[in-house]
Write a structure and sequence with these properties.
- There is one protein chain.
- The protein has helices spanning 2-5, 11-17, 31-42, 45-59, 63-87, 94-101, 104-139, 161-176, 178-203, 232-237, 245-256, 276-305, 316-323, 327-361, 380-396, 403-427, 442-455, 460-484, 486-500; strands at residues 220-221, 242-243.
- A two-stranded antiparallel ribbon has the order 1-2.
- Helix content is 66%, strand content 1%.
- The two termini are 27 Å apart.
- The chain is mainly α.
- The chain has 19 helices and two strands.
- It is globular.
């Protein structure tokens, strides 16, 4: 049993599978395309929303340090992703990496995790985009019926038509082609960067030094009464983390981590990259460096424009300009946020479909979904299926409480990839590696510990929901995936051929 659950798919076979005409994706992306993808998906809800939330509730002006802490955790993981993506340039990201290093069951678990992560991430951002667009429409005098607008809570009834429509349009773009997606993303990212740079440059003229006092507010102990909303670390060790103070920075880092989610999506496009050995590390590390720099600069400017106790939670950037008497900038930022969130949705959806495609090509999900479009060379079947399901999810489901599942899913993937780097270095030292993670195994171990630290700062309820999803995944694997695995069937065929060979006496 254990030998079948932890059977690995060697790198050579993974690459060979990408050359099958009916299962091969078109190679059309460059390092610039990958960097644009990374920036496009990273800069989104986090920078436009979370800055105000964590500054007001967790870290004060020191939210800039929280972004640095979260960025360091992502950088450690990014170095591991860069080695894998350049060594195993196959669709599927952490799923494919795990299959090559840890085995089939761990690969299934991480693949199942990524499907949830990207689906919820896409739906959450689509609902956020709907809110921005509805606000802009209201300003223009166009009002949607309440039943077709953004759902504010679990008790409200209706269908968020804007969120669903966005997902369906992006689904069509992804079916037509990845290069088209890259061009659309490049245009939108340019608009988004203009907005972010406007905040930094224009906002710097309205900074008041008094707003930084105190830079790190006095610590306040969190008391959640042992409820499921308490951070897991409080329930496990009886120690309550602090809001504000030095420890408040780390609590904030576990929240603003959502702002960095997406750079790992770049790795899912490895198979569609012209020169993955060179371009994947550049795209992953370059996009992360650009976004971390912008996040720190924006948080410093915004907390300097308005005292952290007065920052808006829903639209901190726009409202900070309103507070300084410049409403035009506020409208411009809202427009940029609405435009920018479209790329976040599209690239998260792209990542999910590539993971689903890779799992189906390996037989762990129905092979029907591994066929590419004869003209566009894209995985159109999983794209249409998942796009439709996410459109329904975004339209009907209030997702505020589920958003934290995206965080825990991503951090779990980081842990698995870091461990996979160590394992593959030992089991396949002969593999050509155009990019090598430095200081192995020390750096991957630090990456695992840093990711686990942020995970235990998440609410216990998030862990319970995550565990529930994993239980469902185990059931699906043992009922379908294990018996339909192409790797398993290949091994069974090989063993059968060995048994059929004539022995020394001529008998089979």
């Amino acid at each position: 049993m254990s030998s079948t659950l932890f059977r690995t798919k060697n790198v050579e076979q993974s690459i060979l599978d990408t050359e099958e005409p009916e299962h091969a994706l078109k190679k059309s992306l460059s390092a610039l395309d990958l960097t644009v993808f990374g920036v496009g998906v990273i800069i989104g809800t986090g920078i436009f929303v979370l800055t105000g939330t964590v500054a007001k509730n967790n870290a004060g002006p020191a939210v800039a340090l929280a972004f640095v802490a979260a960025g360091v955790v992502c950088a450690l993981a990014a170095l591991c992703y860069a080695e894998f993506a350049s060594t195993v340039p196959v669709a599927g990201s952490a799923y494919t990496f795990s299959y090559a290093s840890l085995g089939e069951l761990p690969a299934w678990i991480i693949g199942w995790d990524l499907v949830l992560e990207f689906a919820l991430g896409t739906a959450v951002v689509a609902v956020g985009w709907s809110g921005y667009v509805a606000s802009l429409m209201d300003n223009a005098g166009w009002h949607l019926p309440d039943a077709l607008g953004t759902r504010d809570g679990a008790d409200s009834f209706g269908f968020d038509i804007l969120a669903a429509a966005l997902v369906l349009v992006l689904t069509a773009i992804l079916v037509i082609g990845t290069k088209l997606s890259a061009r659309v993303t490049a245009i939108v990212v340019a608009i988004k960067l203009v907005v972010v740079l406007t905040v930094i440059i224009a906002g710097s003229f309205f900074i008041h030094g008094d707003n930084y006092d105190p830079f790190i507010p006095k610590a306040q102990t969190v008391d959640a009464g042992g409820s499921l909303q308490a951070p897991l670390i409080q329930l496990m060790f009886g120690w309550a983390p602090s809001n504000f103070g030095v420890m408040g920075i780390f609590t904030a880092a576990s929240v603003v981590f959502f702002a960095f989610i997406g750079f790992d999506v770049v790795a899912t496009a490895a198979e569609e990259t012209k020169n993955p050995q060179r371009d994947m590390p550049r795209g992953i590390l370059g996009s992360l460096l650009i976004c971390t720099t912008l996040y720190v600069a924006v948080s410093i400017v915004v907390t300097g424009m308005q005292h952290y106790t007065e920052l808006s939670i829903t639209a901190p950037l726009a409202d900070a300009f309103k507070a300084t008497g410049h409403p035009w900038f506020a409208g411009f930022i809202s427009f940029g946020a609405a435009v920018g969130l479209t790329t976040v949705c599209m690239i998260l959806l792209l990542g999910q479909t590539r993971v689903f495609f890779a799992m189906s090509r390996d037989g762990l999900l129905p092979r029907f979904f591994s066929q590419v479009h004869p003209r566009f060379k894209t995985p159109h079947r999983p794209t249409i299926l998942l796009g439709g399901l996410i459109a329904i999810l975004a339209g009907f489901t209030p997702l505020s409480e589920l958003a934290e599942l995206v965080n825990i899913g991503t951090l779990f993937a980081f842990v698995v990839v870091a461990i996979g780097v160590i394992v593959l270095r030992r089991t396949r030292p002969d593999l050509p590696r155009s990019f090598r993670t430095p200081w192995v195994p020390f750096l991957p171990i630090v990456s695992v510990l840093a990711s686990l630290w942020l995970m235990i700062n998440l609410p216990a309820e998030t862990w319970l929901r995550f565990a529930g999803w994993m239980v469902v995944g185990f059931i699906v694997y043992f009922l379908y995936g294990r018996s339909h695995s192409r790797l398993g069937r290949h091994q069974e065929t090989t063993e059968a051929e060995v048994h059929r060979r004539p022995g020394p006496d001529g008998t089979v």
